[in-house]
Amino acid sequence: MITIEKVENLDEKTRITLEVMNALPEWFSPPEDIVNKSVIHREYPFIAAFDGDKTVGFAALKIHNEYTADIYNFGVLREYHRMGIGHRLMEVCVQYCKENNYKFLTVKTLDESAVYEPYNGTRAFYRKEGFYPLEVFTCVWDEENPCLFMVKVISEMTEP
C-alpha cells in the first residue's frame, strides 16, 4: 500500500533525497549536485511516498515569497511511474500551498527544444497536473539545457 507523508526529520529528508535521486540518473545528475540538494532539502517542506518501508518518491518545495512556492525537486522511482503516486504527491503539495495561503505553485523543467526523451513524460505530467508553460530561459541552467518555467494557480489574487 502506497502512503504519502510529510517528512520533518532532517536526516530522513537527506536519506530519501539521495536514495531517489541516485536511482533516477536520467533526471538527476551529477552526483555532487544530488548531494548538494540532499542538504538543501533539509530546509524545505518535504513530502515522500512509501510502498511499505520502501521510499518510492518525494517532493521538496522551495518557498519564494508570500505568494509563491516552487516544486524544487520531484521524483518517483521509474518502476512506480503511471501508478498515480506523482499525482498523490502533487495533491499534498497543492494542499500545503492552500493551507499556507500561497497563490502559485511553480516548477522548472527541461524545455522540449532540448530533445531528451525522459523529459517528454515530465512535461506531460506537469501539464496534466494543471501547470501552464510561461517562458523558456537559457540563463537558468545553460543554452543546452533550456529551462521551461511553468505555473499552477492555487488561488486567485484578491485586492488588499
Topology of this structure?
Layout: E1 2-6, H1 10-22, H2 31-40, E2 46-51, E3 54-63, E4 68-76, H3 85-99, E5 104-110, H4 118-128, E6 132-142, E7 145-153
Parallel strand pairs: 4-5
Antiparallel strand pairs: 1-2, 2-3, 3-4, 5-7, 6-7
What does this structure look like?
The protein is an alpha+beta fold. The chain has a single domain, classed as Aminopeptidase, CATH 3.40.630. It has four helices and seven strands. A seven-stranded mixed β-sheet has the order 1-2-3-4-5-7-6, sandwiched between helices. Helix 1 runs antiparallel to helix 2. The protein is globular. The mean pLDDT is 95.
The CATH class is identified as Alpha Beta
Largest sheet: 7 strands, mixed
CA-to-CA gap between the ends?
Answer: 44 Å
Q: Give the strand tally.
A: 7
The succession of helices and strands, N to C, reads EHHEEEHEHEE
Principal-axis shape equals globular
> Would you tell me which CATH topology applies?
Aminopeptidase
Summarize the structure.
The chain is α+β, with helices and mostly antiparallel strands and 160 residues long. It has helices at residues 10-22, 31-40, 85-99, 118-128; strands spanning 2-6, 46-51, 54-63, 68-76, 104-110, 132-142, 145-153. It has a single domain (2-153), classed as Aminopeptidase.
